[in-house]
Amino acid sequence: AHRRMQTELQSAWDARLPDLPLANAYEALILASIIEKETALDSERPMIAGVFIERLRRGMRLQTDPTVIYGMRDRFDGNIRRADLRRDTPYNTYTRSGLPPTPIALPSLDSLRAATRPEVTGALFFVATGEPDGSHYFSKTLAEHDAAVKRYLKKLRERQ
To answer: How far out from the chain centre does Cα 76 lie?
Structure first.
């Protein structure tokens, strides 16, 4: 399994788009692991990668919940609180810039390919739509993102 991962990672890295803000294949693996945890939809992986690539290019923090959860270890009870987002760990991409120090999951081949061939659309944000398919809404502006978050929270309340 390790040898296959190394082969697939190298293949994805060799086929990467030019000018990615990733220093090496290991950083692509770290990014792919985050993409893997963000969505179960293969069709969304390149767009999620595009958001993260655009954030890295702009020097923005990734602010991705799966890294916070990973850094919480056994303290994670299924719910992330504001205090968790503020608690600094090496994996908290809300408190630290750039990528975390190691992968947070075993990425799929689709996530590896997305990390090295992202779909950069200018979107800087994404949030769950609340639909049963697990899809996300992608936004280019904070105002648009805030509106999408409100829609998601409304759907969540309606289901409860």
So the answer is: 18
Q: For residue 139, list its beta bridge partners.
A: 125
Q: For the chain, give percent helix, strand, coil, nearest 5.
A: 55, 5, 40
Cα separation of 142 and 152, whole Å? 15
Give the integer Cα–Cα distance in Å for 56 and 6. Answer: 24
**pTM recorded for the entire structure:** 0.94
Tell me the average pLDDT across 60-77: 95
The pLDDT value given to residue 156: 87
Mean pLDDT for the stretch of residues 149-153: 94
| Alpha-carbon distances of 128 from 24, 62, 79, 152, rounded to whole Å | 30, 16, 16, 7
Query: 139 in helix, strand or coil?
Result: strand
Please name the amino acid found at residue 12. A
Sign of the torsion formed by the C-alpha atoms of 138, 144, 149 and 155? negative
The alpha carbons of the chain give a radius of gyration, in whole angstroms, of: 16
Establish how many alpha carbons lie within 13 A of residue 9's alpha carbon, considering only the half-sphere containing its beta carbon: 19
In the structure, how many helices (H) and strands (E) does the chain have? 7, 2
